[in-house]
Amino acid sequence: MSVGRNDPCPCGSGRKYKRCCALRTPHRVSFGGWAVLAAVALMLLTGAVVMVGSLDELDSAPTGPRRIWSEEHGHWH
Prior knowledge:
1 helix, about 40% helix, rod-shaped
């Protein structure tokens, strides 16, 4: 038999269960909560892998001529 929230607490304190021992029991995370947590972790991990992969591409990018400021024209070339 389970104890209802408004029933007297089985510990003998005389208080309602919701105000006594119900607060001490750990709450369990549902399967849906774990699934959402796993999906968010997977997305963060995927983003980190993509970011690290794109950093390697930047290092191997060809370097072309640099832009220089033209005093005569007043803009970059």
